[in-house]
Amino acid sequence: MSALGEEKARQATQQLHSGELWLFLTQEGSDPNVGLVFGTNSVGKAAFMLDGDGPKALVSRIDAGHFEQHSPFLTTRKYAASFENDLSDWLRELAPQTVLLNFSEHDIRCDGLTHGQYLSLEKVLRTALPDVQIVSSEEQLSRVRAIKSPEELRRLQRAIDLTTVFYDRLLPTLHAGQTERQIQARMNELAAELGAAPDPGDFGGPLVLINRVGMSHRAPTDEAVVPGDLLILDTALGVEGYYSDIARTIYFLRDDEDAAPQREQQVFRAIYGAIDAAFAVLRPGTPGYQVDAAARQHLLSLGYPEIQHSTGHQIGRHVHDGGAVLGPRGDNKRRAPGLSVEAGMIFTLEPTVLMSPDPSMIVEENVLVTEDGPQYLSTRQQQLWTAR
Fold this sequence. Notes:
It comes from Deinococcus ruber. By secondary structure, this protein is of the alpha+beta class.
């Protein structure tokens, strides 16, 4: 993990200005952002810091050997009797004018400092540096999470490629008579066979939804697929701690059908066109709500209902990662859709049509933003898949 940690710590340091110090306080892995930025974590109470002189860590004697062996890019000090006293002494040496802490009112991925730890840390800071300014790291942490390093891109591409193989192997095994619950169980088995970790989500694995049964964020049921059904599958596979998020829709043919009915095919083409519309404007500098608006307007212009969620979100260490969102602007309290797209971000594109019991579909692709525009990381679903 040290190579990835070194990449991300360097990236995080580049977000800082002169006189700023970014402090991460954690114990028993309480702040997941330590793992993101430093590629490691601690058992005992620890402070991880970034400033112009590079990454640092104040750790317990129990943890020190781990960092010495596996995180050589960190300047590490050990504390014995008093974490607070040793941290105060080090802060006085560093003498920052501003300290950034991991709290946020807007982005849960940036809100890693518990309220109790904040109060404890504030006392240390006010004692050691009476005039220091304490500010949120949300802006900096959001960008570090969102803009992927080369190693993160490698891991995500591997997860996405494996998800393509996953669907290629799954599709021939699907047939009428299988229940939603049975299909989810097979999907979890297949992910394990491929060496991936399926995200359990809220319902024990991928979403498996028969349109006829109801379209919502729900657990699978014992309802079986019958000919004429649409089946929606939404899968996230984890590889080395990074997750894809790809959804596919399958139509189950009746005995007298060789292809899906025109109505179902029209819905698929509408979604395909909405993805094209979002892809066309997904460029650095574009606010997320403008990308969402392009997909949303495409579907509305064809007479389909309003998209009931955001057109896309970021992926990474979580299936729904933080930072900019491709969603409607809404009220001014919703900050994420107003953030601009930047090169190095990876988004899903999933402008859905939800009309249950009428045809509903989800088609979800994974896309990387580059300086020259977007590029697909997933292999696009070019047509409505069918099974019997």
